């Protein structure tokens, strides 16, 4: 992992910097990747994505929550979201984190909070995906998922991170269950004994898991913006006779819309991950660490919104001389 990326991930864990950033005009930059703070901000984006041929997975931002009140409040937001998805017939599911709903409080509390969401999801026909967090949570998350699966919950899925050394074994574990998996590269700072550090090693690990999921998985989601990996996925799917009804690509809101359009134009299924909420700082820092081009975009936004912006083309609505 590069020093640049690891540095950004460490900054993403800084509560002092989070306080500074979220109280300044810099917070406006989050709108590139986060669709507002509440459901009234989110739902127009979901409708627009559906109208453009994309399905959606929506995420109410939050993690590592230790307050029972806040965990229940997050669950309430998801309940209302599922109600509105069902009422409007939107093509959308949920992505949520166990630590947002009470994993760090205790197993029984987490199950209590989760059960009402699972029941609502079944009622409204909404698929719920459990996001993966840092490696310290991986085994606990997979164990909790397997327990729910064994109880008969089927409109659920999980996420695996390709850069972890353990992931190929976890792919086999989930394929054996028949559980839907979203495969992503991985976005947390992990040591070499836990995760691949070199970009090419991560790509190779992703490709190996992708192929196993396409052949033996249950409607896997291939979540990447890496053009090389997307081309390899398409090539492998075509060679193996695997059509777009058997898997989907997933991409983040605000990232590589050109690739989304190209895949849709070629007949592949695309789902967009749209986050919302005010706890956007850690999420934003992970997006910047994943793709340095995002940082350049945000830097340009800062300049345009500053007094220096009037010196740039279009800074004051006109072209600078």
Brief digest:
The chain has about 325 residues and is of the alpha/beta class. The chain has 13 helices and 8 strands. Helix content is about 50%, strand content about 10%.
Estimate the helix proportion, in percent: 40-55%
Mean pLDDT: 86
CATH class: Alpha Beta
* Structural class based on helices, strands and sheet pairing: alpha/beta
Q: Number of helical segments?
A: 13
Question: How far do the termini sit from each other?
Answer: 43 Å
Instruction: List low-confidence stretches.
Output: 7-12, 300-321
| Elements, N to C (H/E) | HHHEHEHHEHEHEHEHEHEHH
Reported for the largest beta sheet, the result is: 8 strands, parallel, barrel
Shape: globular
Give a description of the structure.
The structure is a single chain. The chain is built from 13 helices and eight strands. It is an alpha/beta fold. The longest helix is centred in the N-terminal third of the chain and has 21 residues, at 68-88. The model is unreliable at 7-12 and 300-321 (pLDDT under 50).
Task: Describe the secondary structure blueprint for this structure.
Elements: H1 3-11, H2 15-22, H3 39-51, E1 55-60, H4 68-88, E2 92-96, H5 98-101, H6 107-124, E3 128-130, H7 138-150, E4 156-161, H8 167-177, E5 181-184, H9 199-216, E6 221-223, H10 227-239, E7 248-252, H11 257-265, E8 270-276, H12 281-290, H13 292-305
Features:
321 residues; TIM Barrel; globular; alpha/beta; disordered C terminus; 8-stranded parallel β-barrel; 13 helices; single chain
